[in-house]
Amino acid sequence: MKLSIITVCFNQQKNISETIESVLSQNYKDIEYILIDGGSSDGSLEIINDYSSDIDCLISEPDNGIYNAINKGLSKATGDIIGLLHAGDLFYDNNVISNVVSCFKQGDSDLIYGHSVVYAEDRKKIIRKNVSPKYKDNLMKFGWFPSHQSIYLKSSVFDQCGDYNEDYKIAADYEFLLRVLLVHKLKAKRLDMFLLKFHLGGVSSKNIMSVVESNYECFIAWKNNNLTIPFYTLPLKIIKKIIQIIFQFFRFQ
Is 112 in contact with 186 (CB distance < 8 Å)? Predict the structure, then answer.
């Protein structure tokens, strides 16, 4: 099975090399690597070009945001399975893609997700571990949402459900998962392993505002997909996020 990995990048000179190396270090070899750069001006593209022989498709041009960039990558992907690894993020180890492909081969899942680890910006201190529960149909109703880049999907999912809706500026990934799991009711399975490492910066009031904006878009996503949102869904989602932010704040002190 061919697996397509899409990396989106914009002005990530400090981190892009490490992300590319993380992809190249995977022990699974049938990987199509697609890199979408948003017209970086900080030297990122020069670094990316050093790896041009290892990148199957490279696009560097201005875009309309992260979801527009992802959709560009999806339009170029030819793999049986598709996953994301944004600039600055890393696979948990060299076996991630092998384990993902094996999990798909063992069943009839359309979507597979796993656990992730959140590090401080220097990646030396673990802020938290996102351990996802075993999949049940009501998980999203109780505020659950897996780390976006721990999700892998069969390419047929995009044929059936469409791409990311670029009308959503923050929560297009959430809206997409609503379509996949609750509208089309495709099959999901948890891979009980850590798949992803990513890092966050410091906590500010902007983080709280982004939580509010994101959850408003999540509310609209339920309505636009003709889904009835339980009264407790967004409060639970917000509470979980605020707890994460508070926990992150104190870990930095």
Answer: no
